[in-house]
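INFO  loader      accepted 1 record
INFO  loader      residues=335
INFO  predictor   begin
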Amino acid sequence: MLHNFLETTVPSYNTSKGLTTFEHHDVGNLDAFADCRTFKRSIQTIGGKSIPDYFQLVNEYDEPLPARPVSKSYKLVSHLEMFDQQAKQLKDSNIPTNNVWVKDTVLDGGLRATREVHFNDLRLDLPSGRLTDPMVARMDTINSVDMSWAFQAFAGAYRNYCRNTQVFGGEKVYHAKRKHTRNLSPESITANSIVGLDTFSNNRNYFRRMQTIDLNRDEWREIMETTLCRNTSRGAVATTDQSKKVNVALLGQMLHRYDQESAELGSNLWAGYNALTAWSTHVTEDASWTDDDGNDRTRKARTTDANRVPHVQLQRQAKVRDVINSDAWSAKVAA
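INFO  predictor   done
INFO  writer      dumping tokens
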């Protein structure tokens, strides 16, 4: 049964037992999170000295939150700022946002929060036995400021989900689950969930087939070595196959991205595609990973100039198209 969430015609609040929900129809409405600004503050000893490397979480009134101190490596993701960024990304995307149903949930006085967005203009007919099951596309984002939840983003067409990464009554086309560590980039995760949902909804048959095509890590490496990471310049490094030379830093980054995507989406071509779109979209962030020898690696961002971001993204998108049109990729699709 296709649910039309516009039956709830007016915004509605409901508060019960420390849980507040707000149902409405505007991704730009952040009223539910207005009182959820969170900051890190130095912890002072009785003598007035700061305790090094640890911080107390406080609200916008500088009042301590009921949460244990966090270390300097903890990446605080404030609900209001994060959902504001996500709303702007949606407005700038190709996803239709004029006909949506949104449910915002705030728990434990703002320590945890979720946002559920249903896109009523994105209807997906999913196989269900001999029939098709019509559902609308949706996105769910989960966050905490007290380390009780990892940061998560789901996208797809499904009836419900649980925080152990499972979805019910449908399928997810994107999912990421990250701890609040220094390298967490929530804006990149939400952006990639939007790209994945938009791409899947417009090309659902092709990308549904991608989900059924097995692709292990060695096969992904082979595709990357012969396409995106191939480099014939004098400074390039030869792989185990001396006939190939690759950009080792980029190859390491793409293997890392594949590991992240395949952990959530399975070892298939769809995970490889999501690794490519993540790389093409996120041009302003440093990439950090541990290589196959256990060494920590970092690849600096291509640009930090906001005016250059669209240009760099277009360059990368062209390279992604080259990968998808390559013989190596086509061979996997045809297999």
